[in-house]
Amino acid sequence: MESKTKVVMVGSAGFANHYLDMLLDQADPSIFELKAVVDPYVQKAPKYQRLVDMKIPLYDTLEEFYQHHTADLALISTPIKFHKQQSITAMEHGSDVLCEKPLVTDIDEIPEIREAIRRTGKNLAVGFQWSFSPALLRLKKDIIDGVFGKPVLFQNFTVYTRYDRYYVRNNWAGKLYDAAGDLILDSIATNATAHFLHNIFFMLGKDIASSAVPEWIEASLYRANPIETFDTCFINGEFSDGCRFQYVTSHCSDYNRFPILRYELENAVITYDANAEKPCIQACFHDGKVIDYGKPDDTTAGYDEKLYFMLTNRQKMLPIPCTVETIVPHLTVCDALFDRVGVHNFPEDTLYRKSDSNGGGGTFVKDLYSQMWTCFEKNCSPYEAGFSWAFPSEKVDISSYHHLELPRSRP
After folding, report:
1. What is the pLDDT at residue 2?
2. Helices (H) and strands (E) in the chain — how many of each?
3. Which pLDDT does position 93 carry in this prediction?
4. 214-253: buried (b, 16+ CB within 10 Å) or exposed (e) per residue?
5. What gap in Å lies between CA 399 and CA 231, rounded to an integer?
6. Whose CA is closest to 30, among 4, 7, 8?
């Protein structure tokens, strides 16, 4: 029988706490062994006492961990600025890596990671969970195989309502740089709804582990909250094969709306509405034929598919569907947004305050949901739709964009 996958958990709070939920309570203990948790602030973690009671070794750094142990898999869910070096350190010590998104904020850091992968021969997976979804992988294979004909227009619409507490939960939410002055570039497009922008590029990749990069984009960015980046985003663009795309997303409507996908191809329209009573990815052909693919978050083992995949892949040796190469188009577009597209404030007379269930509050934009939906239905920008608060979109040539111009630390 194959030995268990030896795991080191790097991080213990935030999304790392979610990983610990799965490792301690959901994952099959016969397939893995949690060797240690690495976090210099683990005493503040929700599961600190439980880890102590279980006698799980605790270390401040990965280097200290590897002085005493080995691991087949390092799970990295720490502040973004540590992802690159921790991933490289883990690979240099013989571990495969599953790193939460974003792997890095700066496209200029990708070559160093590529070189570490080449040098060590280890695998690095990035935690865009929809890229590990069996339903979406089946759909992607059919798109690649030409089942639906040529891609025409890929759209995503998402509203994740966020109150003030979202922006004060740490020292980097909505900021270009964290409190230490390190580059963060946190925004709705790089964080909360990043999965859905990435999925557009991922589903158009020429093979399972690749993504398509657009030739150009036209974007308009807005904010209602007092943040450095943006909380509302409209992007249209086009790929080299002529397929267009649209990404419409905001934190500034109090009408929460989970992802709605509409992927149009020559012979069928693929739809998914996470808000439906029974959400299901469906491909509806023009001749009436329908293929159901299931839900993106249906999993093989009852917990996150990306974690299950990496815990079991030492035995299966399957190609990893989301790698450093897979994320480059999303990273390129996001860096281009920060470098080349200005952020506009919503006018004061469009804003209103609303209390949340915890006694706090949030700032929202009047009628924003319906206006976003108009843009989605008509595949247009807010300016093209004639909204009074809107500015013309700014066009960026992505095909010639290869370098982040913002400094890596706060000037």
Report:
1. 59
2. 12, 18
3. 98
4. bebbbbbbbbbbebbbbbbbbbbbbbeeebbbbbbbbbbb
5. 26
6. 4
φ, ψ at 43 (rounded to 5°): -60, -25
* Phi then psi dihedrals of residue 183, to 5 deg: -60, 130
Max alpha carbon distance in the chain (Å)?
67
Phi, psi of 139 (to 5 degrees): -65, -45
Which parts of the chain have pLDDT scores under 70? 1-2
Residue 395 CB burial class (10 angstroms; 0-12, 13-18, ≥19)? middle
pTM: 0.95
Contacts with 132 (C-beta within 8 Å, 6 or more apart), sequence order: 304, 305, 306, 309, 321, 322
For the chain, the distance separating the N- and C-terminal CA atoms, rounded to the nearest angstrom, is 55
> pLDDT per residue over 317-369, tens digit each?
889 999 999 999 999 999 999 999 999 999 999 999 999 888 899 999 999 99
Asked whether the CA dihedral 46, 48, 54, 57 is positive or negative, the reply is positive
Q: Which residues contact 320 (CB under 8 A, 6 or more apart)?
A: 123, 124, 125, 209, 309, 313
Strands 244-250 and 257-265: unpaired
CB neighbours of 281 closer than 8 A, spacing ≥ 6?
135, 136, 139, 261, 270, 271, 272, 292, 293, 294, 295, 296
Residue range 257-294, pLDDT digits in tens: 999 999 999 999 999 999 999 999 999 999 999 999 99
**Sequence-separated (6 or more) residues with CB below 8 Å from residue 227:** 167, 173, 174, 175
Q: Do the beta carbons of residue 113 and residue 103 sit within 8 Å?
A: yes
**The pair of three-digit structure tokens given for residue 56, joined into one six-digit string:** 């799980």
